[in-house]
């Protein structure tokens, strides 16, 4: 994981190498330390690149004269992988600092958007980030952006000479976000390409987190799970105050 993250920073620093010119002595020192940390991708630590993102944002602001817009897709993937891989304690501090310093302490940030499957506003790892707006699958404000809406799906299929019929709806209309039914884009694009109603999404993600969570579940959870499978519906309590990788219990599973 350390090697992968440092390689990603190396790509970004190389892509923006023209912004690291005409730096003062303090910036030169920070850049040297960060650059050495990025290049040292075999040492198993992120402590030497904890300032890599905030420094990159600082230089971008100086070069372009505009506040930075930061997008982090699947922010929680490293935390989840660390949890399921049993190295969470070793890496969470540096990961949290990397994010927190950029989101909380940067004077060069205009706004940021994070996506993930675990909530961020209440996380212990980012506990001092208290000005975030969390939009989950029950929120209506951005519901239409989680996938293709009914109208978008119909327009897409008609373009390829296909019909949005009951069979297609049964196969691909598996999400209800906010107040809208949402179709999976990957599945629909594959259907448009192959014109075969097959499951396209089933093998595209890792399920280690779910498997580990089920192993940790107690007797009550497993009884409820059996009821859900048999009856297709279950009323239960879901905790929105914590996350799986912070506190695994029935309400967070």
Supply the number of helical segments: 10
Q: What low-confidence regions span 5 or more consecutive residues with pLDDT below 50?
A: none
State the secondary-structure class: mainly alpha
Main sheet specs: 2 strands, parallel
Looking across the biggest beta sheet, what order are the strands in? 1-2
The amount of beta strand, in percent, is 5-15%
> First CA to last CA: what distance?
25 Å
The number of strands is: 4
**What is the chain-wise order of helices and strands?**
HHHEHHEHHEEHHH
Shape: globular
Alpha carbon gyration radius: 22 Å
Instruction: Name the average pLDDT.
Output: 86
What share of the residues lie within helices?
Answer: 40-55%
Layout of helices and strands, plus pairs?
Blueprint lengths: L1 H14 L9 H15 L12 H13 L3 E5 L4 H8 L3 H17 L4 E6 L35 H10 L6 H7 L2 E3 L2 E3 L2 H10 L13 H9 L2 H13 L22
Parallel strand pairs: 1-2
Antiparallel strand pairs: 3-4
Structure description:
The chain has helices at residues 2-15, 25-39, 52-64, 77-84, 88-104, 150-159, 166-172, 185-194, 208-216, 219-231, and strands at 68-72, 109-114, 175-177, 180-182. A hairpin with a 2-residue loop joins strand 3 and strand 4 (180-182). It is globular and about 65 Å long. The protein has a two-stranded parallel sheet with strand order 1-2. It contains ten helices and four strands; from the N terminus they run H-H-H-E-H-H-E-H-H-E-E-H-H-H. The mean pLDDT is 86.
